[in-house]
Amino acid sequence: MAPKRYLFTPGPTTVPPEVLAAMAEPVVHHRSPDFRAIYSECLQRLKQVFRTSSDVLLFTASGTGAMESAVANLCSPGNRVVVVSAGSFGERWIQIAERYGCEVQAVRYEWGETPSADDLAATLRQASGARAVFLTQSETSTGVVADVQALAAATRPSGAHVVVDAVSSLGAVPLDVDAWGVDVACSGSQKALMTPPGLAMASVSDAVWAPEGSSSSPRYYFDWDRTRRAQEKLDAAFTPATSLVVALNVALGMILEGGLEQAFERHRLLGRACREGAKAMGLELFSPDDDSAAVVTAIKAPEGVDAAELVSQLRDRYGVQLANGQAHLKGKIFRIGHIGYYDVFDIATALGAVELGLADLGAEIERGVAVTRALEVYAEGARV
Ligand code: PMP
Fold first, then answer.
1. Model confidence over 185-196: pLDDT tens digits?
2. Is the N or C terminus of the chain more exposed, i.e. has fewer CB atoms within 10 Å?
3. 89, 93, 244, best to mutate for ligand 1 pocket (most atoms within 8 Å of CB)
4. What is the CATH code of the structural domain delimited by 259-383?
């Protein structure tokens, strides 16, 4: 028999049974009253999760679709843009912007470093006339969660639009779109929003809709204006992935019912338990050793261990899916995602699996302490 499967990656993530059950309901027509009611509720709930009174546009795409839509709708060829990049997803912004003919000025960091608002402010003072600043809230490749509030504040004097990749962070760590002056935030369904992959969202501030806000870049499916007008009438521009919208609506209802602040606190605590457990085993963290790292814990593979081998053996032998490092970090780090439908018992399972897997590979680790330490830290935090 194949081993039982555990999905502990920073996306896609495990989906609650209520959400899976919603996916199994009969398909509804996207222009029927049945669907319109759900569509409307889902769009309203998205606004609450993004903490915005502006529109949240919903696309059938993965998160990168929302990111591409931001570049296509905001930037014209030749526009100067600034990208803050400290990992794989910061680099994605650079690639998309270059593909659309933007003149990209990158504020680049070593992977694993935390971006600084002062560096961004200094770059913006030089790069006058920047049309937009592209940020990554949770850099999933490294585990670093950037201070978007400070980075948005540093952008404000320049007048550039603030665009945030919140694909792995929305619903896991605070993002206050309106209060922080975020013009566009992009996300996807398959991370902390506890829904299968396939839906992308972009919140778009009122400032962006001004007449001068329009760009000359070509676009069709991802044209924001068309989608906004369609959503206003609850008459989707194209056939949406209706079953996914039904599922997302259930997941958002669960998140909002539990409370966003409570969700953020749970993620902080799970991150803390994961870090302390890993350290107790004798492992060294790659992601920051503080509560900002609430999305994914990145851990250095111990001496002599290839992280890729650890990840594949945990999957094949124990059914536990973790994530390898990306690009030059492949084989060097492994990542435990703890977002969405995730609790302390998942942390215990993930750490238990890492302990077994590393022991199988002959690594020198301390046995029998990681799970105990993680549970202790969780219990201490949960009591506060
Ligand atoms: N940005 C970040 C921070 C991500 O974690 C991901 C997915 N790993 C993406 C963008 C891309 O999203 P998708 O794979 O849904 O296109």
1. 999 999 999 999
2. N
3. 89
4. 3.90.1150.10
